[in-house]
């Protein structure tokens, strides 16, 4: 029994380690390449690391502006989707339980529609509203795809005991007070998890910012990165240095919230 | 802690339907002010639904609920002057004990700007209630740092801090282990005396219901079968269901006379000495002792007579029986309960 357990654990760790190696390979390759001199970017032989690409990127590429724009977009979308998700989840579970099934079914179906299919009408609407090259254009249309956030938060709200909310009602709390004082505090890990996942997805988004914010000063990191690949030739060293630099904020966000994310998924697993 | 006014609750044809199932079927019930009313019945009898309708957590399908003559049927849950202790206590997990207790008062204060209780009042009343329920030392603990008994007392404190005229208890002892239950029972009764509110307690445990209440309501299939003092319910059950549901062991029953049914309580059978004749007019029952349960002051003997079984309770001072012994006992005519073929009491 005991040795069986050990073998199992060993096997598990082998599988997990292999996965980590595969996942880390691309990242490691990018970071290592960004440190190689331009003359030896594609080589495999060991060379003295250099920061020349980083220096060039920081000098000629608007890192601060792009990161700032992207942060505003990602944070705005994450915040907006969390607010929508919390309100919708509370309403669907506590206020209108009968409407829950059809609404959730519709939302689940909407997940199957690729965002690219809707991007032309979305673009036309946004430009007519005058949102080209603006924060509103980057953020507001993306709030329409809150279905996943709603679905995840509905599961978490349903997992909470109803009696605490009912006790609050008997204590004289109005629905918004029940939401604020009883439901939201219990949802904190789930909210953190959803916010971070939406933040990262939005941060990495390419197509929508490319369409709605083509101007260099208003666009996001991902669009900015494409400047390193041009018809005249590709600056791989610069591209990878910039990519490494601009993934640091995401790493930071994840590190800050990782405990809560793990907690949120552990909670779901434990049930 | 001053006592709150206690409300008289009246239900008139109160009905609750979920789709096609009827959870409560035209319940007419009068709950005396200041009483400790226990609602008891098998699971699915509608007792929890009744409590949820009283609290306002769910609307009635039809019928009316009055408190001191005032129609509460459409009054929202928070404005009824009705507090409730949930079976799982439903404490706010992220708030400490003091915050749990004072939550309702703090909402009031915020909403009514000046007209509600001020900070000092809230703090004083929280302290008073905490002391009453022996929670004084625990005010800054969070629910997950409390034992089951402590959580139950926090739930009670939170319910009574606003001095509700009506306090509802949903299986308040079910989540406690057996050792704690006796002291929690005494605590509940003491609390009832202190606050004076009308208490309505729902339980599936007839023993708990009988020992704690001064008004006992027996329910079955969404209807109230009997509502009276527990002594009266025990002494004169309105039908066979109440006779066998209330009291432990359940009332002994056997067919006769005619197509009716005769019943008697275990303690009303008198063991006859070998050869002793049953007095005239007495019911004579005979059987063999199968199971002898000694409870300290008494002995419950389950006997079998070939077709049915009955229980005989012997008080101390008599000869204890042993399994396998023949048992003959007599029941005095005034101790017999008569039910007709539909199970209704006829005498």
Automatic annotation (TrEMBL), chain A:
Subcellular location field: Cell membrane
Similarity comment: Belongs to the binding-protein-dependent transport system permease family.
Principal location: membrane
Gene3D superfamilies documented for this protein: MetI-like
Keyword hit for Transport: yes
GO biological process, one term: transmembrane transport
Species this protein is from: Desertihabitans brevis
Protein's membrane topology: Multi-pass membrane protein
Name the UniProt record assigns to this protein: Carbohydrate ABC transporter permease
Keywords for this protein: Cell membrane, Membrane, Transmembrane, Transmembrane helix, Transport
Record-linked InterPro entries: MetI-like, MetI-like_sf
PANTHER family in UniProt: ABC TRANSPORTER PERMEASE PROTEIN MG189-RELATED-RELATED, SN-GLYCEROL-3-PHOSPHATE TRANSPORT SYSTEM PERMEASE PROTEIN UGPE
Residue ranges annotated for the ABC transmembrane type-1 domain, each copy included: 67-257
KW Phosphoprotein (keyword) present: no
Gene Ontology, cellular component aspect: plasma membrane
TrEMBL record, chain B:
Domain of life: Bacteria
Keyword Transport tagged: yes
GO terms for MF: ABC-type transporter activity; ATP binding; ATP hydrolysis activity
Transmembrane domains' residue ranges: none
UniProt keyword annotation of Plastid present: no
UniProt xrefs under SMART domains: AAA
GO cellular component: a single term: ATP-binding cassette (ABC) transporter complex, substrate-binding subunit-containing
Domain ABC transporter, first and last residues per copy: 9-246
Keyword annotations from UniProtKB, A to Z: ATP-binding, Cell membrane, Membrane, Nucleotide-binding, Translocase, Transport
PANTHER family assigned to the protein according to its UniProt record, in alphabetical order: MALTODEXTRIN IMPORT ATP-BINDING PROTEIN MSMX (PTHR43875), TREHALOSE IMPORT ATP-BINDING PROTEIN SUGC (PTHR43875:SF15)
Protein name: ABC transporter ATP-binding protein
Species name: Desertihabitans brevis
